[in-house]
Amino acid sequence: MKKLSYLISAIIAVGIIVLIEPYVNEAKEKSKYSFEVESKDGKISLDSYKSKALAIYFGYTFCPDVCPTSLSSLAHALNSFDKDKVEKNFEGLFISVDPDRDKLEDLASYAKYFHPTFKGATSNKENIDDIVKRYGTYYKKVELENSSMGYSVAHTSYIYFFDKDGNFIKKVDHFSNPEQLKEVLKSIL
Q1: What's the CA gap between 33 and 42, in Å, rounded?
Q2: Taking the model in full, what pTM does it have?
Q3: Separation in Å, CA 77 to CA 18, 80, 169
Q4: Hey, what domains does the chain have and what are their CATH numbers?
C-alpha cells in the first residue's frame, strides 16, 4: 500500500512539473530580458512596450560607424512596411552604453534621426552592465591617447527583437543580410 502511495505521489509530482515548466521557463526568459532605463521622457522598461513590437540596440552616440550603420539598416527595413502599421505597432530603443557622454536629450535626437519610432535611453553604469550581461552582449571603454574624444567604446552589434507581448524573438547581428531584418520585422508587426 505504501508503494502505491509513493507511486501516486511521484506521478502527481511529475505531472505538476510538466504542467508548470513552460510557465517557469517563460518567467525566466522575461526576467533575462527585463530592464529599466531612463529616457528624456522618463523611465522605460520592457513592460512599457506591451502591445508594440520592439527592437533594442546597444551602442553610443559617438560611435563613428557600427551604430549608425546598424540603426540605418533597421530604419531602412522598417521603411519597407506600411508607415501607419509601423507607427502603431513598433518602437526601436537605442540604449547607450556610454552614460558619461550620452545625455538624455542627445540620445532622443540621435535615435529619432534614424527613424521616428526610435527612442534613446541610458542608465548608470551598474545597471547598464547588468542589462548587457543578461542580454549576452559586450562593451568596453577604450582610452584613446592623443585624442580629443578621450575614449571610444568597443561593443558588439546586435539588434534584439521582441513581439507585442514582450517575448524575445531573435537576436540579429550587424553583419546579417538586410533581408533578415525584414523577415523578423514581418513576423512581429
Answers
A1: 19
A2: 0.85
A3: 40, 5, 17
A4: 34-188 (3.40.30.10)
Encode pLDDT of 105-145 as tens digits. 999 999 999 999 999 999 999 999 999 999 999 999 999 99
Residues near 112 by beta carbon (within 8 Å), at least 6 away in sequence: 118, 119, 120
**What confidence tier does 148 reach under pLDDT thresholds 50, 70, 90?**
confident
Cell of 140: 568596453
What distance in Å separates the CA atoms of residue 166 and residue 178, rounded to the nearest whole number?
23
Cβ–Cβ under 8 Å, residues 163 and 170: no
Between residues 178 and 73, which one has the greater pLDDT?
73
Average pLDDT in the chain: 89
- Can you name the residues that pair with 140 across neighbouring β-strands? 154
